[in-house]
Structure formats: structure tokens, C-alpha cells
Amino acid sequence: MKKRNRWKETLGKAAQVLPFYLLATLMVIMCVFYFHMRKRESQVLQKVQDAEEYSSYYMMITNDDSLPFWQNVYAGALEEAQKADAYIEMPGINLETEYDKRDLMKIAIDSKVDGIIVEADESAMMTELIKEAEENGIPVVTVLEDNTQAGRQSYVSISYYNLGREYGNQLCDIIREKQEKGYSGRQSVMVLLDAERADTSQSILLASMQEVIDGAGLGDLVQIEAVPVQSGSAFAAEEAIRDIFMTRDTLPDVMMCLNEQNTTCVYQAVVDYNKVGEIEIVGYYESDMIRSAIQKNIIHSSVTIDTKQMGRYCVDALSEYQESGYANEYFAVDISLLNAQTLGEGGADNAKETG
Amino acid sequence: MPKKLADAFTALSIRTKLICVFVLTILVMLLVNVFMYLNINKITLQLDEIYADNVRLNSIADALDGLQSSMTSYLNTKTTDAMEEYYKNEQNYADLIAGLQTKATGDELLLMERNIHYMSETYLSLTADTIEAKRGRNVEKYKAYYDDASQLYEYLQMYILSLNNRRFRTNTGDYEVLSDSLQYLEMVSIFIFIALTLCTLLMVIMFTRNITKPLRKLSDAAYRVANGELEQADMVEVHSMDEIGVVTVAFNQMLQSIPNYMNRLRESIEKERQMKEKELLMETHLKDAQLKYLQAQINPHFLFNSLNAGAQLAMMESADRTYDYIQNMAAFFRYNIKKDHDEVTLEEEIRLVDNYIYILNVRFSGDIHFEKKVDESLLGIHIPSMLLQPIVENSVNYGIRNIDWEGRIVLSVYRKEENVCISIKDNGIGMTAERIEQVMQNCISHQEEAGDSNGVGLNNVMERLHLFFDGAERFAMTSEGMGKGTEVVISIPYPDIK
Predict the structure, then answer these.
(1) Does B53 touch chain A (CB under 8 A)?
(2) B276-496 belongs to which CATH class?
(3) For residues B491 and B479, is the Cβ–Cβ distance under 8 A?
(4) Are B165 and A96 a contacting pair at CB < 8 A?
(5) Phi, psi of B387 (to 5 degrees)
(6) pLDDT tens by residue, A199-227
């Protein structure tokens, strides 16, 4: 009885302070809730608040921003730019319509950017735009393709001579492999050129390739055909390549592609027209699809360049110019080779550098 | 800490407690309401702000359209109105783009904003050049400027549209998050309000219970006390030192003191009763002793004197008178023997007085003149025995014994209103008022009464009358002064006549 009374008394005392504990708990819940709400809201506004300011702002203008090649170049450039307290943007990506290089160059000039990286060409319009940029005090760096007419500050590209030699080596390998397999006839080789490139780079490439083949004593066994493919207008390259497969009576034994898009289109056409094994492809660049195709032995090999290095060099050239008023005239980017063997050794990271 | 707080709370008065509880409840409600209101207000403001960017971009786009169309209109018509419209639109557009940010940041949307700003500056400059060239009628130049401006106008439109769309997508995401937050807030608000209401309710119940519980206990205890269950009424527990606590403490003190007080009262009554009883008993014993003592004195003394007188008479005269004398003596003694009975009739008492007077007249040679005026219808009333003889004896001894004139004693019995009056009046030396007062106050010593008396004094008569008639005053003694005699009147209530 006494125990029960004591228990009742304790319970009564506890009940007296219970509302205060409940109130305190309620207050704690409210505080937790308040901070939770603030956290949620701050997450919403975080992006804007986190936006870092930079002292310089560059634009990078290419023919096709969506290509992994250019995405990688951009990634390398952005990385380097941020080190130099600058930000780089590919303006075409954020717009609701697709502008060509001319429009984007105009936008860049009118936006008063601190520097332009452009995949140029030798057209008069490009020359004009680069000149306009120069007049507005905007330094221009050309990448991959150059415009020699205007006063661009620097040119970042690969050595087309070295590239031609690499293609030549790959062609020699293919011929030798075919000889080993018993094919002794003359091999027809189709090189897909960019019809819109007016500079001498493709000529240099072809010449150096020929030089390697001749040097290997295989000149008689090879018949090289250079086919220009339109790249500027929409879907032109794909249509042109399909035309080759559909209209030609005899298809080449080896197809050599000098850009990523052509490589992908040729690969798809070979698969679609059931020419796997009959046509050897020497590709360009290292997208996931190209890697996969190399592993399946549909593409013999792919000549690739260090895209991030290319991006870095572009930004370095602009930074150099901003700092000193001068920049290196030419930056050469490294070339490497991707084939079944190098992929087996550990992928593109271990690709044999040849440049 | 909570215990200290609870102790401090219990020490407060009810008024303060009530104020505390109400203020606390109101404050908590207010706090929660303000908290909820601020949160909801903040989210609502943020919701409003979310699409503020879109609204602003729409305004810029509209202003841009207005500027382009007013410029085109001026180029087409060259009117003053178109010019004014152009300047108005130009100012408007310039004001609007001034609000756009111009810094190079890592945020693509902010970069677009920056680009719109700078492109707009170029565009404004181009439109100004166009208008200037038009005014200067430089056709080639203004056409070229117009083409450039139109192209830039398209870029700007596209940029604004793209930024607007991008912002809208981002803002929609933010809106969804905030909308979720608002719903979440609503749920939490409902929960907190319900919890708070329950909490407050609980607090009020607890508090009122704390007030009413001791009150109920107190009233229960008071009822028990009122019903006389003093032993069952336990001490009421004191929980707090508020007004109820103070009343409870006072009640407990009262509860403690009531039995003590009652015991003391009871003891005092008991003591008084015992004392009275004792006093009465002692008085009775004393009277009894006195009576027995007097009786013991009367018989031999009086008998001796009377017999002495009888012997003298017998010597001087013949046997007749002796015979009468002895008769009277015998009657007197017989009455004395009979007087053990407490009540006698008035007739018997008067006869005793006759006997006594006869004996005295024999003793003192017929000096006492005794006269009776008796209403015979009253002779049957009952009175205590030995009542009249001591008074007559007193009148003889202190009234007429030593006077020079003829002594006279008158015994009257008459009715006066509801009383029967027995008057014994002498014409002796009389009494002063002080002496009467002393006699009435029973201050005469027994020694004074002693002597040649039958032993039953006036005091005895008065006390017996007093006891016989339950304390009522029945004895009166009057005298007109020294030498004017004394009268003793005994009044007996008529209904008491049996």
C-alpha cells in the first residue's frame, strides 16, 4: 500500500512537470524544423550563392559543341582557366537555337569577352570576324584549324605531318596483316577529307602518309583515294558516307577517317551494310563507341590526340597574351594511338604516344 | 532545476500562478504563431521571388521589342512621335539592363545575363548610330547599322529567351522544392498546433487540479469535522504555500487544537461538578452534624430545665396544674421525637408553639402574651418541621425577655395573593437594619445563638426553607427600629399546599 502511494506520488509529481517537458520538447522540435527548413531553402539558393567570380571570361567556339572531342577539349580548357582565375564557356550549348560559328563569334565580340578560342577556317568571313575581334581588343586563339589571314594570337593544333605518319604506319600494319593472311592484291584506301578545310593541313597529312608507305616499300600495293566530305551543314557527313556505300560498285579495303564524326558514321555504315571484316577502318579520336568498336575488331585502330592538353594550351595562350601581350604562335598537341593491344594494356590512358 | 522551478512555483500565490499559466500559455501560443507566420511568410516571399527573374526577363524582352520596333518605325516614317517613342524605349531598355549583373562568374545563367548586358550595350550603341545616320540621311550607313542592330536584336532575343527558359526550368525546380517545403510546413504547423493545444490543455488541467485537489481535501476534512468525526479527520496535506496552503495550515492547527480545547473544557466541567458535589455533600454533612449535635444538646438541656420547673410547680401548688404542665412537656418532647419527619402540617407547628409558650409562661410566670390570628383553612398546609418554634424562641430570647413593658407575641397565618404568609411579630427591643442584614446574610455565629435555646437557630430555619423551596427567598425579617419590635414573615407558595 505504502509502495503504491509512493508510486502514485511520484507519478503525480511527474505529471506536474510533464507539460513543461512537453513544451521544451516542442520548442526543440520547432528549432530542428526551423534549421531543417533553412537547410532546404539554402540548398535551393546554393547554386547562385556559390557562383564564383572570375577576373577573365573566354568563349570557345567550335563547329559542333556536342561532340565528345570538343567536350574534352573544353574540360581541359576549363580546368586550366580556373587555375588562371578565368572562366570559359561554350556559348552554343546554352542557347535554344543552333548558331553557326559566325553568329557565335559575333555574340562573343558583342558580349565583350576577354578572349575567344575558335575552331577557325580559312574563310573570308572568319578572317573578318577575327579582325573585328582584334579591333575590339579581344584576343583570338584558333584551335585545331587555323586562319592564317587574320591576326589571331596563337594556333593550337596537332602536327598534321606527324598525324599523316601515324596514319601511314597504321596503313602499313594493315597491309602487312593482310599479306600475312594471304591477300596479295592491291589495296584500295579511301581517305575521308574535310571538304570545308581550305588550309594545307590535309595535303600535309596525305603527303606524310604517302611518304611512310613509300618508305616501307608498300607504295605499289596501295591505291589511295581522297574523298572530301561536307562537314559544315547538318547531317552532310553522314549522308555523304552513306552515299559512298550505296552508290559505289566497289568499296575500298581500308577507310581512313580524319575526324570523330566520320569515324562514327563509317563504323555504323560498315555494320549496317554488313561489311565487317571486309573494310578496315582507321579512325580518329577515342569515344566510348570507338573503343567498343576497336574491342570488337570492327575498327582497326584510332589515332587520337590529347584533347585536354589541347584545351589547356588554348587557355595558356590566352593567359600568356593577357599577361605579356604576346603568345606562342603555335602549340603542338600530342598524338597517341588506340588499338586492341593498347586497350588491352589498360585503355587510352596507356595509349602509346607517337606525337 | 525542474524541481527548484516546481518548488518556486508551488510557493507562489494562486493569483500569481494563474497569471503565470495564462502568460506562459499566451506567450507560447504567440511564439509558435510568430514562428509559423515568419516561416510561411518567408516561403511565400521566396515563391514570389522565384519567378521574379522570369518577369524581369520578360520585361527586358518586351522593352527590346519596343525599342527595335520604334527604331524601325522611325526609319520607316522619320516622325517625331516615332523618335520620341524610340528615346522612351531606349531609356526604358537602358534602365532595365542596368539591373543585369556584369561579372564573370562560374554560373552559366549569370554569364548569360552578363552577355545580355554587354550585347545590349552594343545594341543600344548601334541603334543610336542608326538613328543618327538616319537623321543625317546617310542611307548606306544607317542601313548597315540597321542590319547589324537587327542581327544583334535577334541574338539578344535568343539569349533572353534561352535564359528565360533556363531560369524557368531552374525556378520550377526551386518552386517544387519550396512548394514541398510549404506543404511540409503546413503539416508540421498542424502537428505543432495539436501538440501545443494538448500541452496547454494538460497544463491547465494539471494546474486546476493542483488548485482544486487541496480544496476538495480541505472541504472533505471540514465536513468530517462538522459531522463530529473529529477523530477520523486526519491532517490535510499541504502541497503549496499559496492561499489554499495557508488556509490548510490554519485548518490543521485548528484540527490540532480542537480536541485539546474540548478536553480542557471537559476536565474543567468535571472538576466544577465534582467540586459542587463535594461542597453540597460537605454542607449536607455539616448540617446533619449540626442538627445531630443540636438535637443532642436540646433534649437533655431543655428536659432538665422543664423538669426543674415541673418540680418547683409540684412543690408550690396542687397536682392539677402540674398535670397540665407535664402534659405540655410531654407534647413538646413527643413533637421533638416526631420531628425526624421532614414535613409537618401548619397546625402541628402551631400546636408546638402553643406548648412552648405554655411551658415558657410556666417558667417565666406568665410574662409572655401570646396571640394567634390564624386562618384555619390554611392549617393543613405542609411546611418543614421545627420552623415556627425557633422563630418564636428567637422572639422570646432576643425580643421580649429583657423589656420593661409587657411582652407580646402575635402569630398570624393569612393568605396573600398566591402565597400563604406566617407572621411572628413581637413588641420587643426590635433590630437595626444592619442587624437584620447580618441575620439574613447568615453571619451570626453559632455561639451567639447558643444558650437557653432549643438549639435550632434562625439560620437553620432559613437554610431549610431555602432548600425546601428550591432556593426561593421565603424568609423576611422586618423591624421598625430599636424598641419597636420585630416581625418575621414566612411566605409559602399556595400551590405547594398539599
Answers:
(1) no
(2) alpha beta
(3) no
(4) yes
(5) -100, -45
(6) 788 899 999 999 999 999 888 889 999 99
Closest CA to A93 of A60, A69, A115: A60
B471: left (phi over 0), alpha (psi -120 to 50) or beta: left
What is the helix (H) or strand (E) element at residue B498, kind and residue range? none
Nine cell digits for residue B307: 423538669
Which of A139, A131, A94, A93 is CA-nearest to residue A113?
Answer: A139
Interface test with B, best of A38, A79, A107 (most B CBs within 10 A): A107
Q: Does domain B2-217 have CATH number 1.10.20.10?
A: no
Classify domain A56-158+308-333 at the CATH superfamily level: Response regulator (3.40.50.2300)
* Distance separating alpha carbons of residues B166 and B168, to the nearest angstrom: 5
For residues B36 and B189, give the distance between their C-alpha atoms in angstroms, rounded to a whole number.
Answer: 7
Categorize the per-residue pLDDT at B305 as very low, low, confident or very high, splitting at 50, 70 and 90: low
- Could you please state the CATH topology (level 3) that the domain comprising A160-304+336-353 is classified under: Rossmann fold (3.40.50)
Q: Domain extents for chain A? A: 56-158+308-333, 160-304+336-353
| Percent of chain B that is helix, strand, coil (3-state, to 5) | 70, 10, 20
CB contacts, 8 Å: A18 with chain B: 202, 206
Taking only residues 365 to 384 of chain B, the set having a beta carbon closer than 8 angstroms to any beta carbon of chain A reads: none
pLDDT band at B358 (very low <50, low <70, confident <90, very high): confident
Q: Which residues of A238-272 are buried (b: 16+ CB within 10 A; e: fewer)?
A: bebbbebbeeeeebbbbbbbbbbbbbbbbbbbbee
Same fold, A56-158+308-333 and A160-304+336-353: yes
Answer whether B300 touches A (CB < 8 Å). Answer: no
Residue B192: which of A23, A17, A39, A38 has the closest Cα?
A23
Q: Which residues of A touch B115 (CB under 8 A)?
A: 91, 107, 111
Q: Tell me whether residues A111 and B114 touch, CB distance under 8 A.
A: yes
pLDDT in tens, B387-415: 888 888 888 888 888 888 888 899 999 98
Interface contact B122, partner A, CB < 8 A: yes
CA atoms within 13 A on the CB side of A114: 26
Q: Tell me the per-residue pLDDT of B131-159, one tens digit each, with 9 for 90 and over.
A: 999 988 888 899 999 999 999 999 999 99
Q: Where are the beta strands (DSSP E) in chain A?
A: 53-54, 56-61, 86-89, 115-118, 140-143, 154-158, 187-194, 222-229, 254-257, 280-284, 299-305, 330-333, 335-339, 352-353
Q: Per-residue pLDDT for B449 more than 60?
A: no
Q: How confident is the model at residue B279 (pLDDT cuts 50, 70, 90)?
A: confident
ipTM of the complex: 0.75
Tell me if A44 and B178 make a contact (CB, 8 A cut-off).
yes
Say which residue, B221 or B128, is predicted with more confidence. B128
Answer whether A57 sits within 8 Å of B114, measured CB to CB.
yes
Question: Which cell numbers in the block locate residue B262?
Answer: 474540548
Count Cα neighbours of B341 within 13 Å in the Cβ-side half-sphere. Answer: 10
Q: Choose, out of B126, B188, B211, the residue to mutate when testing the contact with A (most A CBs < 10 Å).
A: B188
